[in-house]
Design brief:
5 helices, elongated, mainly alpha, 135 residues, 74% helix
Amino acid sequence: MDTMAMMKTMSTSEMPMAMDAELVQDTMMAMNAASMAATMCSASDMQMGADMATCAAMCSNTAMLADTGMRMMMRPMGMDAEAMRSMLAACVAMGTACAAECRTHQDMDESCRYCAMACDEMVAKCEAMMASMTA
């Protein structure tokens, strides 16, 4: 789906900050991919028992945070610059922590390897988004 085309239909004259539409789309897609990968990794972790409880919980938190960040970006008229920066920073922090945790298990669970990659991509896109924000 081309979220950029949808965003172009929204009025941006009243937006509280300027944001690059292509970077917004890339960031939302990375957040969505991280949310899906973390959700699947969490489910896989649960099948592996108590030794994977920390990983499962971190993946669940990452999935929820990434999804919330993505949904915030879908509502440009309701954005507050400081709140968006804080959400992006939270996604960076949680994505970094989740990727590190998943890397410790990637040899025994393929879903952990995919989750770490998706988290790394989300972190990179969120950092780029924060660097590009004006206002």
